[in-house]
Amino acid sequence: MRLEGMPAGHRLRYGPAAEGIERLEASLVGVAFSPHRHDTYAIGVTLAGVQTFRYRGESRHCLPGEWHVLHPDEVHDGAAGTGDGFGYRIFYIDPALVQEALGGAPLPFVADPVIRGRGVPASLAARLAGLDEPLDGFARVEVGVLVAGMLARYGSAQHGSAQHGSAQHGSARYGSARYGRRGPLPMAALARVRELIASDPVVRRPVEEFERVAGLDRWTIARQFRAAYGTSPTRFRTMRQLDLVRRLLLAGTPAREAAVAAGFADQAHMTRMFKRAYGRTPAAWRAALP
């Protein structure tokens, strides 16, 4: 990726997606992402320039060839470390796809987001390098397995390191211990809740309906939904509403109409939620696309 001479702004290019996988190439010159959070894993590689971001209270940076792993629902921003801007490619991976490979274990948590050296499987890196190549059913499964294995490996290693140091430096929250649970999760029940929300995110459903569908009480649903999918049911619904907004904007629907169609109170409400999720306003996001 060459950034020399590129005008100031934010450029986005999406590759062919698959269920639970979105791939993006982006470049930023003279602009930055404001603090935001996704409900997916964000696993990317810096291609050019120096990428800086704040994550879990610390300033991080990624040089070309270095990778970063951001957990769902963790607030972060993004900016260039120099005046030359930066470029990157990134996977957005639905935690449900990781769950398919984990078999019901709590999601791995990678506290240190920067991966240097050869820590990312070559076949996973190739799926991102081949951004314009379609992902068939088997490729989707392969990505899920590779991501789950990588996350589990780094999460376990960091968890062990934190436990080793806790005797001298105090405790830390890493890995599945972050959720206070290590055993298998009731994935069938949690999947029913997730599917109910995703089937029509415009509808705001009462908590009693989730309890009936899951056969679990509301407190258990709240705790274990996050352990399984990395976010809350409410946040999951908001992100599915924003998925609808993005589709409508790409189809040429005015922002005000898209907001109403997606179930937001008004355009201002939708814009606030959009910026919190993507770090840019709907107008800036749409303008960055080809």
Automatic annotation (TrEMBL):
Domain HTH araC/xylS-type: 191-288
Alphabetical keyword list: DNA-binding, Transcription, Transcription regulation
Keyword hit for Transcription regulation: yes
SMART domains: HTH_ARAC (SM00342)
Gene3D superfamilies listed in its UniProt record: Homeodomain-like
Pfam family, one: AraC_binding
Domain of life: Bacteria
Matching InterPro entries: AraC-bd (IPR003313), AraC_XylS_family_regulators (IPR050204), Homeodomain-like_sf (IPR009057), HTH-like (IPR037923), HTH_AraC (IPR018060)
This protein's name: AraC family transcriptional regulator
